[in-house]
């Protein structure tokens, strides 16, 4: 399959790209920074999904919108408008099978930087709009909303023993997901799933369900 993934140079996006490559797919990555993946089946295009030139790529079968920034002053531009721009260019054509958006648990809770939470909440709403329109091609559209994931973006809290202890106390399962686990979810939802669409999957180790009953 031909798979287009944004934000492939590190973190979740890189893990997703490596998962698809390991299953012998052709992967095109869009990222603002140079590639960190070396594979004969990987093509890297260095561009900004919001303001850069988007290359002509025919026959995309799976589109995964992962590129994102956090508390940057550009969160809505990159996370939401960039994903919309990429999707409108590549998704609505006869070869498409699935579109996936990497959102965030903050889309449901709002418990993060204001612009970041707003960008991810908008992404989930846009996903549902895409699902309505892309059904004409027999394709699915869904989103994943991870909670904490162990990437370099979260070094600030992962490397602070006091902050990390507070975070672990907020989850039912005292851990965060690894990027490779999110990649497995992404592969299943796009390459295996054929019947679920217009859904947002929360993967947060039970943080949203945390409740302490005091009697």
Would you give an account of this structure?
It contains seven helices and seven strands. With 215 residues, it is an alpha/beta fold. The protein has one domain: 3-Layer(aba) Sandwich (Rossmann fold). The chain has a seven-stranded parallel beta sheet with strand order 3-2-1-4-5-6-7, sandwiched between helices. Strand 4, helix 2 and strand 5 form a beta-alpha-beta unit. The protein is globular.
The helix content, as a percent range, equals 25-40%
Number of helical stretches of at least 4 residues: 7
N→C terminal distance: 55 Å
> Looking across the biggest beta sheet, what order are the strands in?
3-2-1-4-5-6-7
Mean of residue pLDDT values? 96
Strand content: 15-25%
Q: Would you tell me which CATH topology applies?
A: Rossmann fold
Oligomerization state: single chain
By DSSP, the count of extended strands is 7
Reading off the top of the CATH hierarchy, the class is best stated as: Alpha Beta
List the secondary-structure elements in sequence, H or E: EHEEEHEHHEHHHE
Show the helix and strand layout.
Layout: E1 2-6, H1 11-22, E2 26-31, E3 42-46, E4 62-65, H2 75-90, E5 98-102, H3 106-109, H4 114-134, E6 140-146, H5 155-158, H6 161-168, H7 179-192, E7 200-203
Parallel strand pairs: 1-2, 1-4, 2-3, 4-5, 5-6, 6-7
Helix pairs in contact: 1-7, 2-4
């Amino acid at each position: 399959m031909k798979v287009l993934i944004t934000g492939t140079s590190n973190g979740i996006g890189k893990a997703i790209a490596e998962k698809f490559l390991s299953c012998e797919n052709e992967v095109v990555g869009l990222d603002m920074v140079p590639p960190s993946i070396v594979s004969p089946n990987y093509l890297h295009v260095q561009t900004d999904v919001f303001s850069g030139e988007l290359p002509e790529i025919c026959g995309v079968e799976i589109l995964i919108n992962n590129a994102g920034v956090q508390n940057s002053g550009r969160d809505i531009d990159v996370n939401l408008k960039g994903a919309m721009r990429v999707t409108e260019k590549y998704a609505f054509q006869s070869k498409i099978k699935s579109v996936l958006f990497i959102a965030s648990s903050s889309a449901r809770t709002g418990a993060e930087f204001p612009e970041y939470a707003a960008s991810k909440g908008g992404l989930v709403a846009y996903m549902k709009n895409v699902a309505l329109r892309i059904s004409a091609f027999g394709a699915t559209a869904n989103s994943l909303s991870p909670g904490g994931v162990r990437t370099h973006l979260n070094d600030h809290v992962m490397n602070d023993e006091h902050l990390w202890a507070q975070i672990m106390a907020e989850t039912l399962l005292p851990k965060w997901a690894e990027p490779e686990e999110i990649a497995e979810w992404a592969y299943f939802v796009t390459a295996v799933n054929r019947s679920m669409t217009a859904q947002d999957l929360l993967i947060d180790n039970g943080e949203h369900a945390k409740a302490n009953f005091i009697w």
